[in-house]
Write a structure and sequence with these properties.
Structural class: alpha/beta
Distance between the termini: 21 Å
Number of helices: 5
Shape: globular
Helix content: 25-40%
Radius of gyration: 18 Å
Length: 171
């Protein structure tokens, strides 16, 4: 058993061998959400991208560019895991970096835990070192215009698998 103790958080983790038994008892609901719907939820304070227990944002624009290239090419990405609290607010448990990369590229804010609008540290970044969509290198979302609008459409219409762990079901 591993115990992490900070002044504000005490987290007790079971030994790795017991993860399988915990996972088999966990009730979750897998849904598919459009990126646009997730961003709408974020701006209504119903979706916390950065709950206080999450690590800080990583500012790696090259990895973020690779993620966006994958989405624009229609490739799937790993699911986002969220915990839906009793007050129905969703907290991102896994997938924060992916969501912040997408928000950063699009220049879209999210609502932080204090209820204030906040932008990704990668806000409006330019795509870099893309391997397939090389013509998009050096462009931010605002610079893509009509010529590359199909890629932005793919981004907005992208469906993300979201696994919701519900507090009411798992208490």
């Amino acid at each position: 058993m591993l115990i992490l103790n900070r002044s504000d958080i005490v987290l007790t983790l079971p030994s790795p061998r017991s993860y399988a038994s915990i996972a088999s008892n966990l009730v979750s609901n897998a849904v598919v959400d459009f990126l646009e719907d997730i961003i709408t939820d974020m701006n209504k304070s119903r979706f916390l991208v950065r709950p206080p227990y999450q690590r800080s944002e990583v500012s790696n624009e090259q990895k973020a560019s690779y993620l966006l290239e994958s989405i624009m090419l229609g490739m799937s990405i790993p699911p986002i895991y969220v915990y839906r609290r009793n007050d129905r607010i969703k907290e991102v448990v896994d997938g924060q970096q992916r969501l912040l990369a997408i928000l950063g590229f699009l220049g879209k804010p999210y609502i932080n835990e204090s209820g204030n609008k906040e932008f990704s540290s990668k806000n409006c970044f330019k795509l870099r070192k893309l391997r397939i969509l090389k013509e998009l290198n050096g462009l931010c979302s605002d610079e893509m215009g009509e010529l590359y609008s199909q890629y932005l459409d793919r981004l907005w219409d992208f469906q993300i698998n979201v696994v919701e762990i519900d507090a009411e079901t798992n208490s």
